[in-house]
Amino acid sequence: MEKQLERHQETEPVVYERSNEEGWLHLQADREKRAALPHVLKDKEVPWKQGAQAYRKHYVHWGPGHHYANAPVGSMTVAKQLLPPMGKGGKHRHYNEALLYVIEGEGYELHDGVKFPFETGDLACVPTYCIHQHCNDSKNWVSVFYCTPADFFDLLGIQSTEQIEMHPNYQPPENAQVLRDEQGRVVGYTTKEGQEIRFGFNANLQKLMDARTALPFLGEPKNNYDFYRRTLGDQISWRQAAPRIIKAKDHSWEETPMGRLKYLAHPNVPSGLLLFDAFLQELPPSGASGKHRHVSEEVHYILEGRGYDIHDGVRWEWEKDDVVFIPVNTVHQHFNSDPRNPSRFFSVQSRLYHYCGHGGFEHFADAPGWKG
Prior knowledge:
Low-confidence stretches: none
CATH superfamily of the domain at 40-177: Jelly Rolls
Distance between the termini: 60 Å
CATH topology of the domain at 40-177: Jelly Rolls
Mean pLDDT: 92
Radius of gyration: 24 Å
Shape: globular
Helix content: 10-25%
């Protein structure tokens, strides 16, 4: 290097930098942090919290201070949400998509002013940048399992939430001064430290999104540049027409080498989701799944039964309402401990890994009884 620099008439000083080493140390710290976290969270040990949207149990949250705080997954937020009888969540909008699996109850999604009814077992899909609100029009409580992509959208520079309307029972933080509009509606608050928090539309962002639809591309692409002009229109059309409610009863169970599965969101199953696969899995009494591994992270919500997982040789017990986390590159298999009853869980797998060239499964063992 020194000899090469000597060839220049005016040499520049060379300083030593450690960005690579610092990156390695950061990644190693992340690996150690993930390795120390539990793969099963007991639902009863996670508190209910009231926020701008609704009542939730946050199993995995996004944002500063939450990265690998509770569980060893980082590609998605994971929560359970409750809607009281005849109640509703806050109305809001964000760039990231969201899915809600209806654990119990009946109600409807309100997407850009359009009503989409749901019932127990359905999967509700919230496409990107859709004004949405979760509503309960029954006399019973509604509970849903909720996932969104996590810090990925923050890294892209488009993470945002426009809180348009608070849920009816919203309570501002203690000692906060509530701010109201001329109609008496809550539009924000001032914290005890004097910081002002306001809700509502982001006018500049709305202007940008409106402009995206103002100049539609007509005709067929004539060059590679036109391909991207056409892509804009195609994606806007998809977002407006994408299926919002996937009815579980309309889909069939499949017998596979991994066991009995029912896919609700999959590249071959049209839905309003691009970044998640979602499916149900059922294990027979004293039965087991197949064994496999994938790069992508996966999360299960246990709907019925009790059993355990084996993750890279380590046993993790689970029961109804528990949440099971499968970190990246983990060999895993599921077992039903009940000799009389089947167990069943809802599973979400991040599809982000597929888009960056790390999708697919390594299959190691078939589910007992599989006859392919």
